[in-house]
Each structure stands twice: as C-alpha cells, then as structure tokens.
Amino acid sequence: RAKLMFINYPNNPTAAVANKDFFEKVVKFAKKYDILVCHDFAYSEMTFDNFKASSFLEVDGAKDIGIEFHSLSKTYNMTGWRLGFAVGNKEAISALSIIKTNVDSGVFKAIQEAGIEALTGPQDNIEKMNKIYTGRRNVVINGLNKLGWNLKPTKATFYIWIPTLNKMDSMEFSNLLLEKTGIIVTPGIGYGEYGEGYVRIALTVEEKRLEEAIERMEKAAITQK
Description:
- Keywords: Aminotransferase, Transferase.
- It contains eight helices and seven strands; from the N terminus they run βαβαβαβαααβαββα.
- By secondary structure, the protein is an alpha/beta fold.
- Helix 2 links the parallel strand 2 and strand 3 (66-71).
C-alpha cells in the first residue's frame, strides 16, 4: 500500500503546471489514504507571462499531510551546489532531518553562506533570468510550430516537451536528430513508460544556438508538415 506520493509542479520534464484545485484534490486523496505528499517545487520562481506557480502548502490541510522541497539550483543558477530546503509537516521534516544527518555531514559552509546571500540579497536577477528564458522559449515554440508542430507557450521551467516525428518512439527520434542535425534531446522513455512518444528540449543555450537548431531541423527536412 502506498505511503508516499511525489508530485512536481511546475514539472520536469513536461513543463506542466498545477493550480490550487489540483492540490486540493491531492490533499483530500492523501488524507483519505494516509499518504505523505512530497512536492518538488524547484521551479517555483521560473515562470513566464505573469504566471505565478502555486505552492502546494497554500492549500488548507496540506501541512497536515505533506512537505515541499525547494532548490536554489534553478532560481539562483546554483546548479551543482546541491543546496535546498524543505518545509511543511513538522513530523515529516523531523524524520527527514534524522535521515539527512546520517547520510552526510552537511553542505560545505561557504556554499551555505552563498545561499544566504542569494536568499537575502536583491531578487531582481530572477526577473532578468525569466526574461531570458521567455525569449528562448519563444524561439523554440515559434520555430517548431513553423515546422509543423502545434505547441502552446509553456508557463514555467526551462523545458519544452514535444511529441516525436510521425509517432516515432523517443529513442528513434532522438537518434535521428543527433545523426542528421547534431542536436541532442532527452528521450521521453527515460522518464518512464508514459514519456514514450515525446522528447525533452532544454532552453539552456542562448537564442542564437536555438535558432540554429531550428534551421538545422528544417534543412534536414525534420518537420511535421
């Protein structure tokens, strides 16, 4: 019987978002079946077009049955520094603390100091970063739509989740892109059986490179037209 439920919104790899109505259903379900909910909220601040991601803990009763994980990796470009925090149910946080204490001896203090500076310092860098990712998102969405895809602008994260060409499996399509264009994407099957038929694109390179990727696909006739 399930005792733990992991959810992640805004989502990696799909960029899907969830509203409070969804979280209310999660809380109701978790209370009914006595399940602890762990919400991965790493992309909480990486949002576009005036969209604001809802916290799972905003919902009444969420703190009774769940905790929420946050990361400095995305919001403050501290990927690899492995710094984050968890909030929520007191008993769950206490249990997590015991496990964490016995797994390692904590994060290097200088990294903790850097994290404090990030959290307490000016926050205008977040908006600047989101503008950069919005531009990159637009390049990819608009470019792929011109090649025959039918994609809607994502509201959060730096990922684009697209269906494969002509219903290819995700490994086949990923290999096609690599061999014909030199473009690397992540096969959806790597995220489980329900990811089959899709690939994930990361917006972690500048706009010119993304434009070049679209041009390479067009020249290689990799289109949905």
